[in-house]
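<tokenise_the_fold>
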Amino acid sequence: MKLSSSSRFLRTLIRGLAALILWPLFLPKREGRPWMPEGEGGLLLANHHSLLDPILITYFYKSERLSFVAKKELFNIFAIGRILRAFRSIPLDRETADVRATKLILAMIKEGQVVGLFPQGTRVSLEEPTSMTPHAPMLYYAIRRGIPIMFTAVDPRYRLFGRPRFIFADPVRPKLSGGLLSREEQEGVAWELMRRIYAIAGLDYEYEGRERWQSFFDQRIELVPIPREEDH
């Protein structure tokens, strides 16, 4: 799916403003190189602490394939809504089980897009990262279907010259063994996935039942590295 000229212009403008304004203020740093297999879509999963997270992720990952999921209310704000549409963002109703958003995410992945998703669903403080339960259904679907996942850890040092870090891990293909997971097991896996994202940045993420779900994850789910020669 090709971008329109106006959408491409807006993307370039937003990234230019990030370079002109945000970079001198915070001096953000990228670690790793974001990429996804050629001709195949996937999920970019990240922790979420600031409105600046998606802006700076798109600043470092300049692929036209990248879209983000955003709460639907933002689309009603004219300027913000136009920018979100330029980035092919997907509106999500956080108050309901949004079947339409899920279908859009899956359709975009099928088309080869990379969909950025914050499993926590909203911004959380670094002091209380487990205050929001991560959304499990989409993560479980990706694991069942072996959809490529790129874990992206944000170290949110958003202060003057704070050097916030954006760490892009190489994409992996999840492989589930031993049959389907119960709802409780899906939620446990989601908690453990979030812990692993935070661990990439060396950040703590202590949740209830960690030992149980870490062991369960290791037994049932394999994260298979995707060979670099598939890079795109």
In short: The chain has seven helices and nine strands. The domain at 5-230 is CATH 3.40.1130 (Glycerol-3-phosphate (1)-acyltransferase). The first helix runs from residue 5 to 26. The longest strand covers residues 149-155.
